[in-house]
């Protein structure tokens, strides 16, 4: 096995909580939870209602969960993120009104302060910290398209915190005054083989539908201490710049459009939608294909890279697209699939250096996450990021990564331990948690279903090369698809929801 027996007493498990799952039963202690990743076992879940596979409509911008509730420079969209160490936390928020139209004028980030007042007792703020602010533009210099400029986005890093402690805070500008209401959070436990966050929620491809609301309501009832968001967040690029409905295949529906459009106010709605959760629970994000949002001059990811604070610099990365952090005895690596991942690139070099510094005596568990899965038996996105797997898989195997989380495929799938498409007790467990409820429907077809094997040209990545292959060994030797569920696919279910990772010893 991967580790000596001294590590076998540690526990990690994943529960998939779909909209139809018995979350209350899981939390009541009335069910038996498997205690290893060796399997095979099926998640504790109610049978999924196939009617839910139709998806649900997006919430309108005037929905109470999306509508702006504050005025002036009062903070909104308050969010937390971890730093690389448990002694610091990022606090983010937005002030002022975003603008949309043919002629917009950006707000001045220096016109309002970025302050956080915080302390260990409610109402008693013994420390203050200042940070940085920015705005971003999403510009479409084409006739009939609307431009967007954001409110003022603030990021403040709180330092010198005590691990495993509760803090209360307000954020804003005390000189106006325009301060938020009081929020609270708990820092991560110390980096130690005996200390873990109590519960980690894993969400992918969330969106802003009524099903998304169900997912977030379930997450909040599960009371996690950390959220991993594995890409495709707001689905703002499913809309036209005017707010009119777009299409998942934009070029199919609008072949004459000069560029794929987005409706950036959906991002603001998403920030308000998430605030009740992420103003008290840190959320760590990684980019998905719906965050690309191209502008002219090859500008991409402008909203994603401006709205979210991530510990890039603290973890030795020079990019917000990949970084790492510790959560007690877990080292987590977030990787970018939509930037250079080749072995000659900066991200690969950073990843190798980061993994080489991991001490399994201190952080016994090593978790990685990125958006598109490498192992996937669904027809949708089948072998789409095979190039990334070929470039990076050996490195993850060498440094003993335990679990990999991805989204992108709108379904759930858990793999047996695998390396290079071969069952391997030292390989990671790959888990796809790819439908948090977004407006696109749940993926149902499997590549091994009769007549459902895609052609090699069907699933083309939005970044990187094409490396589709026929299998060179095993029951599918010489074929592009298996004729039955692959042996490396342990369990799959076409449902929406989220995952819950629990750790203990």
From TrEMBL:
SUPFAM superfamilies: Metallo-dependent phosphatases (SSF56300), Purple acid phosphatase, N-terminal domain (SSF49363). Its cofactor is Fe cation. It catalyses: a phosphate monoester + H2O = an alcohol + phosphate. This is Purple acid phosphatase. Pfam families: Metallophos, Pur_ac_phosph_N. Residues 1-22 form the signal peptide. Belongs to the metallophosphoesterase superfamily. Purple acid phosphatase family. One of its GO terms (molecular function) is metal ion binding. Its EC number is 3.1.3.2. Keywords: Glycoprotein, Hydrolase, Iron, Signal, Zinc. Residues 199-412 form the Calcineurin-like phosphoesterase domain. The keyword Glycoprotein applies. InterPro entries: Calcineurin-like_PHP (IPR004843), Metallo-depent_PP-like (IPR029052), MPP_PAP (IPR041792), PAPs-like (IPR039331), PAPs_N (IPR015914), Purple_acid_Pase-like_N (IPR008963). The keyword Kinase does not apply. Residues 75-187 form the Purple acid phosphatase N-terminal domain. It comes from Punica granatum (Pomegranate).
């Amino acid at each position: 096995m991967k580790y000596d027996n001294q590590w076998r007493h540690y526990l990690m498990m994943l529960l998939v909580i779909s909209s139809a799952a018995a979350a209350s039963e899981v939390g009541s202690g009335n069910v038996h939870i498997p205690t290893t990743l060796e399997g095979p076992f099926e998640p504790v879940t109610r049978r999924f209602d196939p009617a839910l596979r139709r998806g649900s409509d997006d919430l309108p911008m005037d929905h109470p969960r999306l509508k702006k509730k504050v005025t002036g420079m009062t903070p909104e969209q308050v969010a937390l993120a971890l730093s690389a160490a448990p002694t610091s936390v990022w606090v983010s928020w937005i002030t002022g009104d975003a603008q949309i139209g043919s002629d917009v004028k950006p707000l001045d980030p220096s016109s309002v302060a970025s302050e956080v007042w915080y302390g260990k007792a409610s109402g008693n703020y013994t420390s203050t910290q200042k940070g940085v602010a920015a705005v971003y533009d999403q510009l479409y210099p084409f006739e009939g398209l609307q431009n967007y400029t954001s409110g003022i986005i603030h990021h403040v890093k709180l330092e010198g915190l005590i691990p495993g402690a509760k803090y209360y805070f307000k954020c804003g500008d005390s000189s106006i005054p325009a301060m938020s209401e009081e929020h609270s959070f708990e820092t991560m436990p110390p980096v130690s083989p005996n200390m873990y966050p109590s519960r980690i929620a894993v969400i992918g491809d969330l969106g802003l539908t009524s099903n998304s609301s169900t997912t977030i309501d379930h997450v909040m009832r599960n009371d996690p201490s950390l959220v991993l968001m594995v890409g495709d967040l707001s689905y703002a690029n499913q809309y036209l710049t005017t707010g009119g409905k777009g299409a998942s295949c934009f070029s199919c529906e609008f072949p004459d459009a000069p560029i794929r459009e987005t409706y950036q106010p959906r991002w603001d709605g998403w920030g308000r939608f998430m605030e009740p959760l992420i103003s008290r629970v840190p959320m760590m994000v990684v980019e998905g294909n719906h965050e690309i949002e191209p502008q002219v001059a090859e500008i991409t990811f402008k909203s994603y890279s401006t709205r979210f604070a991530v510990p890039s610099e603290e973890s030795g990365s020079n990019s917000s697209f990949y970084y790492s952090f510790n959560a007690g005895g877990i080292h987590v690596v977030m990787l970018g699939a939509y930037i250079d991942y080749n072995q000659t690139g900066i991200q690969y070099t950073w990843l190798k250096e980061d993994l080489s510094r991991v001490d399994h005596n201190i952080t016994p568990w090593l978790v990685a996450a990125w958006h598109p899965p490498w192992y996937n038996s669904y027809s949708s996105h089948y072998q789409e990021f095979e190039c990334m797997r070929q470039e990076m898989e050996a490195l993850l195997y060498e440094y003993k990564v335990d679990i990999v989380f991805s989204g992108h495929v709108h379904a759930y799938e858990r793999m047996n331990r695998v390396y290079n498409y071969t069952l391997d007790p030292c390989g990671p467990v790959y888990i796809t948690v790819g439908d948090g409820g977004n407006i696109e429907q749940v993926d149902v077809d499997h590549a091994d279903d009769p007549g459902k094997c895609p052609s090699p040209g069907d699933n083309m990545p939005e970044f990187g090369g094409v490396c589709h292959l026929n299998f060179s060994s095993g029951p599918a030797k010489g074929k592009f698809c298996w004729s039955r569920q692959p042996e490396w696919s342990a369990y799959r279910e076409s449902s929406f929801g989220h995952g819950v990772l629990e750790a203990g010893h």
